[in-house]
Amino acid sequence: MAPHITTLLFDCDNTLVLSEELAFEACAELANEILKSRNIPDRYTGPDLLHEFVGQNFRGMMVSLKAKYKYEMDEDELTTYVLKEEDQVIAKLKAELRPCEGVDRELEKLEAHGKYHLAVVSSSALRRVQASVQKVGQDKYFGEHVFSAATSLPKPTSKPDPAIYLHAMKVLGKTAEECVAVEDSKSGATAAFRANIKTIGYTGAYEANEEARMRKVLTDAGCCVVMNDWSEFEGCLDKIEAGEV
């Protein structure tokens, strides 16, 4: 039996907006500050962090770095860096952020049809997600339905933990069978899959030479269909609603 889809759940970073490269520049600056303070000689560039930690929020990245380099960082220090990262990333986003190519046209069509509830489900801090969708004028499509794994949950987490998807569905009063997610990263796709949500993978924000690899990564992570351009979105959604994937 084909599912009855009522709700579309969009990742934000590099799905709705081209934010990851800008954000990881700021993250790298802070990561290097932390490593220097621990007398660890390694240093990261934005692309280094993006390659290693794409789809994770800054808190998740810092926990991963702490495990990798085996240094101590208490919760107060971590929270200080998390807030500093939010401020620096938001400043960059407000100055330079652009929407992913073609997404605004699809959001306009979805709003005109009025068939689906639309929400954002992100790992990033709520202030950052709100600043992102406001900067590019997408906030009008989502209203208050913006959910952050870093901020909206009693205990902050990050995708691939499915907690933020489960929380969003609970708040919205929806079941997994009613939802379709759109994700661009392995961690995001894994989170949606673990929440039992049918997921459309999106590779359009990656460089052309990365597209084939990411298509496989997203498929292996649980995406039932993958698009490279937002013009393919309607066809992908039709396949899910028809029960073909």
TrEMBL record:
Pfam families: Hydrolase
Transmembrane segments: none
InterPro entries: CbbY-like, HAD-like_sf, HAD-SF_hydro_IA, HAD_sf, PGP-like_dom2
GO molecular-function term, one example from the UniProt record: phosphatase activity
Gene3D superfamilies: HAD superfamily/HAD-like, Putative phosphatase, domain 2
Segments forming a coiled coil: none
NCBIfam families in the record: HAD-SF-IA-v3
Name recorded for this polypeptide: Uncharacterized protein
